[in-house]
Design brief:
Structural class: mainly alpha
Helix content: over 70%
CATH class of the largest domain: Mainly Alpha
Strand content: under 5%
Number of domains: 2
Low-confidence stretches: 92-103
Distance between the termini: 18 Å
CATH superfamily of the largest domain: RNA polymerase sigma factor, region 2, helix turn helix motif
Radius of gyration: 19 Å
CATH architecture of the largest domain: Orthogonal Bundle
Length: 191
């Protein structure tokens, strides 16, 4: 990871830095969409909420102060947009909404934390890919991310069961290290 969160935020404060905005969008848009979906919005509604949140960030990023938690600020933005959308939807006479994938019985705060962690873990997973030989990463990807049975992986990649398990362990160890580095670099306090 070449950019810290603070440098990413500084980069997006410069509206002319398309690379920083692209990196910001690549990290945070999926988080916003997943959170909105988990709150019961369909795919199109969730995409719209994510876009509205990003527009708010564009308008207000220069006013964001480092002493505040970026995570909490972003969560407040998406929660407010989802709440506003659900209020508008409640007045809608046509029940053309909802998401069968929404998790029932989970508070919005718990869901936000789950999605926040998942988004950053997946960012770390993608960032370590180049640290490994292609077959090592592919074994990890098939076993951990796609839940392919070990027997199928051994046949497809010509590896032994032990090699698949070692590949998984090596990549997971590096992902955990990268995640810890990211939390420390981006957030200082591990949050």
């Amino acid at each position: 990871m070449t950019r810290t969160r603070s440098s990413l935020l500084e980069g997006v404060r410069n509206f002319d830095d398309a690379d920083q905005w692209a990196a910001f969008d690549r990290i945070y848009r999926p988080l916003l969409v997943r959170y909105a979906r988990q709150q019961g919005l369909n795919r199109g509604e969730a995409e719209e909420i994510a876009q509205q949140c990003l527009e708010i960030i564009v308008r207000n990023i220069r006013g964001f102060r480092r002493r505040r938690s970026f995570r909490a600020w972003l969560r407040r933005i998406v929660q407010l947009k989802v709440y506003q959308h659900l209020r508008r939807r409640a007045r809608d006479p046509l029940p053309l909404h909802g998401d069968p994938e929404a998790v029932q019985g989970v508070s919005p705060a718990e869901e936000w934390e789950r999605q926040w962690t998942r988004t950053h873990l997946m960012y770390c997973v993608a960032s370590v890919k180049g640290d490994f030989a292609p077959h090592t990463y592919r074994a990890f990807e098939l076993y951990v991310l796609q839940s392919v049975p070990v027997e199928q992986i051994t046949q497809a990649l010509g590896m032994t069961r032990g090699q698949v398990y070692v590949a998984k362990a090596r990549v997971m160890r590096r992902v955990r290290e990268r995640f810890a580095e990211m939390l420390e670099t981006w957030y200082g306090d591990g949050k």
